[in-house]
Amino acid sequence: MERLLRWLDELRRRESQLALVLSLVIGALVGLVVVAFILFTGRLAARLYPAGGSGWRRVLMPTLGSLITGFLLYRWFPFARGSGVPQTKTALFIRDGVISFRTVLGKFFLCSTSLASGIALGREGPAVQVGAGLASVIARRLGLSREYVKALVPVGGAAALAAAFNTPIAAVLFSLEEIMGDLHAPILGSVVLSSATSWMVLHLVLGDEPLFHVAGYHLTHPLELLAYAALGVVGGLGSVAFVKLLLGLRRRFLDLPRWTGWFQPVAGGLTVGLMGYFYPQVLGVGYADVDRVLAGDLVLRVVVILAVLKIIATAVCYASGNAGGIFGPSLFIGAMLGAAVGSVAHLIMPGYTAGPGAYALVGMGTAFAGIVRTPLTSVIMIFEVTRDYTIIVPLMISNLIAFFLSQRLQPQPIYEALARQDGIHLPDRDIRPLAARHRVVSAMRPSPGTLALKSPIGEALARVRESPLDTWPVADDEGLAGMVQRSELESAVAAGRAEERLSDLLRKIEDSGSFTGLPHVHPDHTLTAALERLGTLPYDVLPVVNRANVRELLGVVTLQDILDAYGLAKARRGGGKRGRS
Amino acid sequence: MAGPDPARRPPRADPGAFLGTFALIFFAMGALFALDTLLARMEAGERRSEARQLYQEGVELTTGRRYPAAVDRFQGAVSAERTNPLYQRALAAALLASGKVTDARTVLADRLQREPTDAAASFLMAHVLEREGEDESAASYYHRAIYGHWDQDAARNRVGARFDLIDLLARTGNQRELLAELLPLQDEAPSDVATRRRIARLFVDAGSPPRAIEIYRDLLRRDGRDAETWAGLAEAEFARGNYRSARADFATAVRLAPGDSAIAGRLRNTERVLALDPTQRGLSSKEQASRSVGLLELTLAAADSCLATAADTSARLLADSARALVSAKPPAAGLHAAMETNLDLAERLWAERGRICPGQRRPGEQVLGLVLDKVAQ
Q: Alpha-carbon distance A580 to A255, whole Å?
């Protein structure tokens, strides 16, 4: 015990190690919470909808559920509305990773009640907010710095998704691709750790049962790829229709007087209740029916009706302010659209196509790629669900078509659009291509030449004076050896060392400790990185060198070049120079 | 952790609050684990109970031959408790019964992937494959059913599986494998009369009438007044070519079961064979020669319509020779040689007819074929 306490105290002093340990702890804790969330929702639903219950119960329960949760959301838990993914991103990018414990509690219980009562939304988005919220609460309570609090938010989100959807790899990707918006985020290791831990907890408590039970599908004939391409088009158009309907309806609900907020969710509850009276499959998350359609167990007419009803039901439920996500409904809609396309394809070309179940499976990924716009996550997610490699190629084709169609017809991704409707401008993905455009290669200029390391200082100064550059590269037979400033040459000449060699000057500079190492950038560095590097150096010119051989000089980039590349040509024109000493 | 900032400044929380937070986290984890376990057990219990009820309903519907409704219930049971082999097998059986062979195959493939030694599932899979015409694979699954694990009543189920395999082999005419399966069945199968009779009949199909005769005789030692066993024995004797014994046994069976028209028919058939057979013991040379002419005449009649239209001239010449022999006066001497000539010609005609018009057999020609087969031996 004493050793444990000592270890904890030691851990307290080392923030980076503490954060690593917390990745495991958060993974386990979030896994347990999400399992409780799933089980609690399931048990509550079983009591609200006992076997052989009357059809009117299907109208009454979602209406009552949305009324009660709507009031509680309005009165005490305003941040627990909706999906949870945009809220998590808002917390991460705008609120320094802060999600309150009250929001976590509200999300857990209200979303559970809402889903159990039959509201046609999903559990994954809320789980992400609960997981991210717990990570935030723990990190803040332990007094971690702002950076680490922010870093642990996606860690909690990934853990939650791994447990909620039973797909640890897709959870990692979703966390990086959607929440962070950066697949190369430095928190990758922590996200993987927490996701794996959470998934283990899920399996420890609930066993090794997959979320969906899928038969081994395969491509029947190469021509079948055309049918999958058609599914991509249908999935893409369906996704756009869903997103536009949801955003349009939400805009209208947001325009209503603020005091109506507590009973707005009833619109969603009543809509889904009336639909559920005739088609009970529309109620709730609907994974049991996804499982059935994956087994090819629903007929064409039913899957088409269910796809249309679910699009409307989810859009109204979400737009009216109920608690729940769109992750699960996306998969439901995709499965139904896929089964519809598959049934038609199988009718037209029975010898060349697999059954509707295979299309339902691909349709799930397609709709997810079209609605959530995370194509990589959707491919890996379906791969994890099926554990079947052969479905990957049709899945990729269909996903990419849906993704591009959706991107073209609805440029703003849904989570960003939802946040924007709330007046929050999340960093969009356009920033990344912009950063990619602004690289050193686009701003660098050819080297003015090099000063020979053996040449006398006086001779070097004469050459430098003829050039507009203040700093010159110095080279020997093997390539770049260092950089020297005009002021340094002038000082040396004034001190009567004009006959000394440049190598002596460079050695003296190094010995003085004012600068060590060979400063440089590579052509693929961002201009931001080049600016940061210039900031640490006493001069305005950086040599651009080859990554394979840092002594091979490819050119130079100056502060002015960088400003020109950003369109700030007028700024700093003829600006001052800094001295090394 | 590859954090965004490698700063190592001490966190703000004081040691007490820090340790307290960790204690709280671990306490919460313990409490959540207990809650999760409780909820999971509750869920599993409710699901089991729901599955059991649906299964019972499915069984009742199956008894009433309402297979589509039964499939629905069994599907519900499987969804509620996926790993229960009983429900999976019941679903597969109901799907098979309602004609959804492919779906049944999918369910069974899933089951057998989980538990390859599940003999009952293998047995059902064998039936599915047999329905789909994949006889070789079906035979393989019957073997898995015979050597796999049965939850209950293993001995009886294994015998049942072996019988079904034998039926498949008999249907496909695989006599060698059929005999190989029958031999162990002799010891494994129950000794009730119906089963022994079934085995004996299968031995006849497998081309081993002596073993069948042995079993029938054993049964007759137990009950000498069983007409069906006598008829079975007669069939085995008939298959062996002992037409006289067969006639005697059929006659006994007819005496014991005078109302059985099938046995009476078989008796008449045997008598016709005996009346035609020129090689029978105890016949005079004249009688043998006369029967050989009669046999040739019958063969010619059976082959004539086929050979008349044949393009093959040698076949037509053969028919002409037969016609000449039939219409010629019987020789006064050299009766044995004449009989041999007649029988040789009849055999060749029969073979030509089989070659030129395969599968063309008219009713009543069975007896002729049997006699010619015996003559050829």
A: 60
Q: What is d(CA A396, CA A138) in angstroms, rounded to the nearest whole number?
A: 39
Chain B residues lying within 8 Å of A40, measured CB to CB: 39
At the topology level, CATH places domain A224-426 in Clc chloride channel (1.10.3080)
Cβ under 8 Å to B: A residues 131-160: 138, 141-145, 147-148, 150-151
Please state, in angstroms and rounded to a whole number, the distance separating the CA atoms of residues A87 and A71. 20
B79 CA to centre of own chain: 34
Query: For chain B, what are the domain ranges?
Result: 204-276, 285-376
Under the banding of pLDDT at 50, 70 and 90, the label for residue B10 is very low
- Residues 551-570 (A) with a CB less than 8 A from some CB of B: none
Q: Looking at per-residue confidence, does A197 or A299 come out higher?
A: A197
* Confidence check: pLDDT of B367 > 80: no
Question: How far is Cα B45 from Cα B226, in angstroms, rounded to an integer?
Answer: 56
Statement: residue B282 has pLDDT above 80: no
Which chain A residues are closer than 8 Å to B75 by Cβ? 297
How large is the ipTM?
Answer: 0.74
Residue B306 pLDDT > 80: no
Break chain A into its structural domains and give their ranges. Answer: 11-206, 224-426, 440-565
Residues of A in contact with B114 (CB under 8 A): none
Q: CA angle A564-A569-A573, nearest 5°?
A: 115
Which range among A113-117, A192-196, B72-76 shows the weakest confidence by mean pLDDT? B72-76
Q: How far apart are alpha carbons A527 and A491 in whole angstroms? A: 32
CATH code for the domain defined by A11-206: 1.10.3080.10
Q: From the CA of B113, how many Å to the nearest CA of chain A?
A: 11
Check if A11-206 and A440-565 are the same fold: no
The dihedrals phi and psi of A348, each to the nearest 5 degrees, come to -75, -45
**Nearest Cα residue in chain B from A190:** B1
Is residue A413 within 8 Å of A429, Cβ to Cβ?
yes
CATH of B204-276, one of 3.40.50.1370, 1.25.40.10, 3.10.20.740, 2.60.40.10: 1.25.40.10
Note the pLDDT of residue B51: 92
Q: What would the mean pLDDT of A50-61 be, rounded to a whole number?
A: 86
- A440-565 placed in CATH 3.10.580.10: yes
Query: What's the full length of chain B, in residues?
Result: 377
Q: What is the DSSP letter of A484?
A: E
Please provide the average confidence, as pLDDT, over all residues in chain A: 87
Q: Which two tokens stand for residue A563?
A: 């400003």
The closest alpha carbon to B189, from B228, B159, B150, belongs to: B159
B75 CA: distance to closest CA in chain A (Å):
10
Q: Where are the alpha helices (DSSP H) in A117-184?
A: 124-141, 146-165, 168-174
Q: Which of A29, A42, A46 sits opposite B25 (nearest CB)?
A: A29
B301 in contact with chain A, both atoms CB, cutoff 8 A:
no
